[in-house]
User: Fold this.
Amino acid sequence: FDEVRTNDNQLSFICIDAVKHTLVALLPGKSSYDIEKFFNGFSLAQRARVKTVTTDLNAYYSSVAERLFPNTEIIIDRFHIIKMINQAFNHERVKKMKLFTKPSVEYNLFKCHWRLFLLDPAKLNNEHPRYRRQLKCSMTDAQIVSEALELSEELLLSHNVIHKLHRAIICNDVLTLARCLRAFKQSFKQVSVQKAQWTKKHGGAYPKNIKNIDNNHLIQPLNTLTTDKNLAHVLNAANPKFAKYSNGPIEGINRKIKLLRRLSFGMPNFTNMKKRIILWLNFKPKKKNSKKIALIS
Assistant:
């Protein structure tokens, strides 16, 4: 399940077969009413044969899928999970970066080498230093990350958290992912209790330890992933049984649709747009005859 902009810049619901990657539905709207109306056209026996639905973290796609397909397993796409975590970490990094003056070495550690923070620490170059113009010295990639994280204990903790989650998802380690997310959920509950107790006793501003946790940009995405509604679906993303399912193919189709819109300078009519999309997706060039043709002299 996903959505894509079609005619008049409106969002349309799109669904493809997870195995064959063929188009199943392209609807003019993306509301739950439109989706349910379309799939209710199939019998319950047909819908019961659907085993998995892969989607992003859209709030109502999971609910709609559970209502429509009684035997389905909802899978939150791995790419969207990692993207959300990375974006939150980048916000946290920028927040720490702004604590330093702009031309300083500390500022440049966070600013100019931000990609290194998202790479697996085990794969960072730790042997061959290179001259870094912004830092005015030679350093390895690992040294840059290490020195930057030493400047902020909170960022170091966030860095460790995101890479634990990265490894668990990439290695299809459901147990580690579940352990990390449940540990966070428990700690978040404890912080919520502390906040309630502090407000009841003292009121006003929270102490520094609670405020630092509360202001961390990773709190929101991790809280989203660990809700009762999403947790089981997120764990399915790391399940080896569902490793072959992702939103990659549908994102590729969305890219083609965007290209079609651009080439056609937009289409005001959704029906014509849909026909053009179906034609383009189903178009297969004729194979050239590989047999050699004898030349008659």
Summary: The two ends are 59 Å apart (CA to CA).
